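User: Can you fold this complex?
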Amino acid sequence: MKSRVNLWRSAAVLLSAMFVTQPVVADEPRFEGLWDGAIVFKAAELEFEITVEIGRDPQGELVGTIDQPAERMIFHPLEYVKTDGNNVSFEFLKNSESRGANAPFTFIGEISENGQKISGHLVEHRGNIPFFLERIGEPGSERRTVDAPSVGDLAQDSKELKAAFNRDTGDVRLVILLSPT
Amino acid sequence: MQKYILEEVSDPRLKVYMVWGPMLGEETAEDAVVATAFLHDQRSIHFWTPLHDVAKLFQGPAGLPADELAWDTFQLFSPTAEWGKTPPQPVYVMHVEKSLPKELRLNGNTLRGQIETLLSSADSAGHSPAE
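Assistant: Here's the predicted assembly.
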């Protein structure tokens, strides 16, 4: 796990080196940045976190990457980033069970007046899915990382869970049983 | 869960036990390690099991029929609940795609509300966060 984190960090450094700060025309919305948000299939029920990083390549063209941790997708390149006034669109390609190889996933959004939020929709074949992004930093800046908590093996009789549960008597306890994939 | 519960409810009297298991059949312990990144909080404890026994243990308390395991359930317990021979009865259950009532389908806001209500009732029962 640690080596994976280091790999991600190394990739972040490499990516940040690729981005070159370019002067922008005053009053034009600025899309360059590190953005955190989610694709909201159903609010508070089914949301997928995303991180989008938009910068400029040495030619001054907008480029970027997208992370979707639930899909184990980190620094996945965006195929294009286009802007038109306050509007932005970007796309990535990914193999999809339902849509085939290298299926395009297209985001169309609009930046807020203060430049801190992008909201829009992901174009899906079954209908558009809302997404939002909030600016959390500059392109190339450190992503939010967390140290993974340890995972204990649970015996067949669940004695470890029982011990922890009863140890915390007096507290409100939530037991969640989930698939990790 | 991270966004709707752990980031919104800071009360240290909330404890979360995550049990990762083979609901779909091919999950691994490594998958569980990766998944913990989505639920990182000092109040949470993570377990991995390659077996279905724990999902059978929580089947009855969740109100599920005998042929339906308790994977994809979220079971909330009061401060006085104690696990004896079997797990106690939860005060509230939410689920994903189980044969439980639709109104109990997982919703982060609803679950947070239930947790906050339970914490408030613990306040009035004399358990304060400072204890």
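The radius of gyration of chain A is 20 Å. Chain A has two helices and eleven strands.
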